[in-house]
Every structure is written in C-alpha cells, then in structure tokens.
Amino acid sequence: MAHDSNCIFCKIAEGSIPSSKVYEDDNIMAFLDLSQVTKGHTLVIPKEHVDNIFSMSEETAATYFSKVPVIANAIKNAFDVEGVNILNNSGEVSGQTVFHYHMHILPRYGKNDGFDVKWQTNSEKYTNELLQEIAKSIENNIIKQ
C-alpha cells in the first residue's frame, strides 16, 4: 500500500501519530477530527495515499465508500444525531488543506450545533437548454467500462 512519508494522514494510518480511532480495517481508517466542529466529527481516510477524489481508483472508492454508511450509523447510534453532513474538499480551491483524501462526517444536532451550510442558488442563470448542454458535456467525459 503506497504511503507518503510527509503526509500526516499516512502517518496516522501507519500508527506513528496517535489518533482517536473509531474504525479500522485493512483498507480504511476513521478517527475523530481534532476540531470537533460538532460532537463526533469523524474523518474517514483510505490507508493508501490518494491525494483527492480525482486520483482515487474505482476499486479504492468501492471499498472506501462502502464503509461510510457503517461509520455514519455508528455515530448516529452513539449520540442523539438528527442528521449528518458528509463533506469532502478535493483540491486547494475547494478548501482542501491535507492532501490525502478524507471525508468529514459531521453529526448534526440541530440548527445551532456549530455548523452551517449555505448554498448559493444560480438557477436563474441556467435555461433548460443550457442545463442539457452541461449535462451532455459531463456525460461525454464519463469513462465507460
């Protein structure tokens, strides 16, 4: 399994940096985020060093994403969780600061729990024709197996 010797999450995965681990198997690890934006805020990482979603293989993704609901349900069962935000920042422009793929599972306890998501709506800028054009551009770039 490939590791980056300069990566803090690789060091956590190999055990050279301690963490508050909540789950581990041969391929992934989940541990509490030190910031604890909300109680139970957990990071899920592949043990293999993957920079971001763009460099993740389908095999790694299948293994990785199959465990996210398991971990989210464990958080829900442990605490009085009303909902959850699942968040990944891939690329510096999106806010990624640790360049080892990781997903945040943020338990939600109500509107005043310390986390908020605000979406900007731009629907008035997109006609149905433009939406179809955008959809076709994406569809044409999907690699078929």
From TrEMBL:
A motif (Histidine triad motif) lies at residues 100-104. SUPFAM superfamilies: HIT-like. GO terms for biological process: nucleotide metabolic process. One of its GO terms (molecular function) is catalytic activity. It holds the Pfam family HIT. CDD domains: HINT_subgroup. Transmembrane segments: none annotated. The active site is at H102. Residues 8-115 form the HIT domain. PANTHER family: ADENOSINE 5'-MONOPHOSPHORAMIDASE HNT1, HIT FAMILY PROTEIN 1. This is Protein hit. The gene is hit.
